[in-house]
Automatic annotation (TrEMBL):
It is found in: Endoplasmic reticulum; Membrane. Belongs to the TMTC family. It comes from Origma solitaria. The chain crosses the membrane at residues 33-54, 131-151, 188-208, 220-237, 243-266, 286-305, 372-391, 403-424, 430-449, 458-476. Keywords: Endoplasmic reticulum, Membrane, Repeat, TPR repeat, Transferase, Transmembrane, Transmembrane helix. InterPro entries: O-mannosyl-transferase_TMTC, TMTC_DUF1736, TPR-like_helical_dom_sf, TPR_rpt. One of its GO terms (cellular component) is endoplasmic reticulum. This is dolichyl-phosphate-mannose--protein mannosyltransferase.
Amino acid sequence: QIFNQHNAEAPNLEQASHRMAQMEPNLDHDVSWFLLPSYWAKMVVALISFLCFANSYDGDFVFDDSEAIINNKDLRAETPLGDLWYHDFWGSKLSSNTSHKSYRPLTVLTFRINYLFAGGFYPVGFHVINIILHCTISVLMVDVFSILLGGLQFSNKGRRLNLAPKSSLLAALLFAVHPVHTECVAGIVGRADLLCALFFLLSFLGYCKAFRENKEGHTFSVFWVLVSVILGAIAMLCKEQGITILGLNAVFDALVINKINLLELIRKLLYKDKSLENAGLLRKGLLFRITLLMCGGASILYIRWRIMGTGPPAFTEVDNPASFADSLFVRAINYNYYYSLNAWLLLCPWWLCFDWSMGCIPLIKSVSDWRIIALAALWFCLIGLICQALCSEDSHKRRTLTLGLGFLIIPFLPASNLFFRVGFVIAERVIYLPSIGYCILFTYGFSLLSKQAKKKKILAVAVLGILLINVMRCALRSSQWRSEEQLFRSALSVCPLNAKVHYNVGKNLADKGNQSAAIKYYREAVRLNPKYVHAMNNLGNILKERNELHEAEELLSLAVQIQPDFAAAWMNLGIVQNSLRRFEEAEQSYWTAIKHRKKYPDCYYNLGRLYADLNRHIDALNAWRNATVLKPEHSLAWNNMIILLDNTGNLAQAEAVGREALELIPNDHSLMFSLANVLGKSQKYKESEALFLKAIKANPNAASYHGNLAVLYHRWGNLDLAKKHYEVSLKLDPMAPGTKENYNLLRRKLEQLQKKGG
């Protein structure tokens, strides 16, 4: 239902109490848009934001989700809840040298709750929560934009008035359907940005509540200011950007509540004007509130610093090449180029990519690079907007533009590289909050065009077209985030120079068993980034499996030369050297891997295999025992211990190890099989039979299981059952070693028995 604007708003304006700051002209007067009651406006925003991302609800865990969720021990019940406060977002200790220092305990807590209620790693529940969060945030945006675009005013009954219902609806719709938000909503790791945004907005709305006059007649409430600070702290515990809301609350207070003219204030400060106290600084308790915000922010940062430690996060050159440039000029010019690309993603979110590092954006190294134009365009627009925000005689224009620029720039500051190095070049997720400022500026620009345009309906249709295109782009991008294969392949056309894109496509193909295609992408990743040690390691692994050992050794040797503490590459190099029968070098490589990664069960397992090949049985058993201590569910290490003890005649010890292993991994059929063999040799036929049958039930198509059970029956004298399982074994694997010979022996024995019986 569309209402006439003047009829809808006039009664509220009559009842309004004019004690609160109000923007003089009504922005809605010039906006050609739909006017809906607040409830319906929020319903429309919620529905459209849901439609944009609904198709991501049954997507997989993709990209960073593996490290932040699947491999994060902080989600599991056995990890004490208290540990969340001392670990980073990825589950590493904040005190560790390898920690990224991303401190988001409340986000991890929500992942843990998801995991608990789902009963495991089922992505649907994680995705549904993300979609609900974005819809909730988009609905809150209606209230936030009504304040930012229409001003803050309350009725005599203390109810906040929406003085810009059409503008706030348009801005909220622009926010809800912006395609750059897809990473935050469809990627589960984006939960951090969503939770941060939720408490960011609640902090802002709480701060606005502080100016509703109470029964005692006080002009502001200290309680709500403190609530706003607490909500800002919660936002920061979800993601680092949350702390910026305290600065934005101060800006809002100065501009909207106190109506400070920044240019006039700067002039008075410069000329030490004696009338400074009349400029608004001391009126209405502004300095007191800003002091509260500053003290709250400083306390939050201090507590975080104490928990996090003083060490900076460890990033590499490939994560953020510009920050490692020696020249200050190169760093500055590339940072500004990154800002221009972020601005372009807000204006034209068509080319989206899950990762923008590793050569995706080559460095600008001289002023002759044509991309300098993007910097000039960015600063031309920013300076123009800043001049209008400071110098315009229209106070409404000054405040709207300043608030728009404030919400665009201030939440982006933690990702700007200005205060500390960040671990990315561009990250679409960090634009979630700055897009609020973009929506304010877009809506204000639309109002100016509407004021000038003769055919306002055409302009409204154009904006509707933009919204519709964005909805379709969100749906398409959400579908790409449903699986790693689609996500990684979608990036090939956007960032063909990004080595990480090719690496991830190759890894996805390798996981699916398509090694030939994976090799192609791994080689391209190494070509694009000759120091990409992870690509070298994975390529070396595939070549090792294809028995191309010499090239595998070259790649792995180069990887450990580039990164000497790369434990996985050292281990894989040891495996290759072992296959080439260079045992001393292999042993040295294994021990180097363990030196760099103390808790490395797979390396101990491979070291044990090397010792077994060298008949160093005690060393082999010790290595496998270390593997099982570090990883009690390491089935291969347990199995090898049982088999080695069995082969060396230590049946009692083999039996003890087998029973210990089955207590820890009761459903492992390979352990049942190995222990059954030991029990059979110890003439514990009944128990051996039971384990063989249990192993066969778990894995009925294993020829060796049937073959060895047949041998047991053969020894036991149960010849008919022996014959039956020999036949099953040969049917499953006609070339099974020893089975055919044993079967022929059994047949001859049966024939002899038949002759005697005859």
